[in-house]
Design a protein that fits this description.
Helix content of chain B: under 10%
Distance between the termini of chain B: 36 Å
Number of domains of chain B: 1
Structural class of chain A: mainly beta
Distance between the termini of chain A: 38 Å
Oligomer: heterodimer
CATH class of chain B: Mainly Beta
CATH superfamily of chain A: Immunoglobulins
CATH architecture of chain A: Sandwich
CATH class of chain A: Mainly Beta
Strand content of chain A: over 45%
Number of domains of chain A: 1
Helix content of chain A: under 10%
Number of helices of chain B: 0
Largest sheet of chain B: 7 strands, mixed
Chain lengths: 111, 114
């Protein structure tokens, strides 16, 4: 049973506009959330994270929002740039040192 | 910058062959992981290790085996490759404890079994 879900497999956005990626989870024991970015033929690289005790974390153009009551988090990228075109994975962590991943959202930034 | 390496990057092999995918990290991390990932799908954990001589099966059943004789090395072996093993295999590592939950990934091995 998939505990982390990214229901939008793809997203197309114009350069300079905002990209919003969504992620839902079912396990209330998750206490830390991460976003990874992945280019084809490469491994995922860490982008940004948020603890369950916070509702927002910002790092440059990337902001992650967490709504614990809705078991929902989102990643905002603003402004979107061509180099942001990649697959973005949402991941959640519980206390067993393991991450559960969503299926990813492919972002395409149009010039 | 994370230092975790995987070889080979790409492998095409015939059915029935034995293969070993190599993974090494130079960060001294105790925890290491193997994931399997297909396009459009989530990363599935197939093996993990909390340290030397520790190995566990992950959430996804796999016919592969792993070993952890040295902290920096976590190879994955398929005794008899089959077309169903065609996938991307990703190795990762992380620190034990601490405030960081981040896993560092290698570049992956794209395996094709014909």
């Amino acid at each position: 049973d998939q505990q982390v879900k990214q229901n939008s497999p793809s997203l197309s956005v114009q350069e300079g506009r905002i990209s919003i990626l969504n992620c839902d989870y079912t396990n209330s024991m998750f206490d830390y959330f991460l976003w990874y970015k992945k280019y084809p033929a490469e491994g995922p690289t860490f982008l940004i994270s948020i603890s369950s005790i916070k509702d927002k974390n910002e790092d440059g153009r990337f902001t992650v929002f967490l709504n614990k009551s809705a078991k929902h988090l989102s990643l905002h990228i603003v402004p979107s740039q061509p180099g942001d075109s990649a697959v973005y994975f949402c991941a959640a962590y519980s206390n067993d040192y393991k991450l559960s991943f969503g299926a990813g959202t492919t972002v395409t930034v149009r010039a | 910058e994370a230092d975790i390496y995987q070889t080979p990057r790409y492998l095409v092999i015939g059915t029935g062959k034995k293969i070993t995918l190599e993974c090494s990290q130079t960060m001294g991390h105790d925890k290491m992981y193997w994931y399997q990932q297909d396009p459009g799908m989530e990363l599935h954990l197939i093996h993990y290790s909390y340290g030397v001589n520790s190995t566990e099966k992950g959430d996804l059943s796999s016919e592969s085996t792993v070993s952890r004789i040295r902290t920096e090395h976590f190879p994955l072996t398929l005794e008899s490759a089959r077309p169903s093993h065609t996938s991307q295999y990703l190795c990762a590592s992380s620190e034990m404890g601490g405030a960081s939950y981040e896993q560092y990934f290698g570049p992956g091995t794209r395996l094709t079994v014909t």
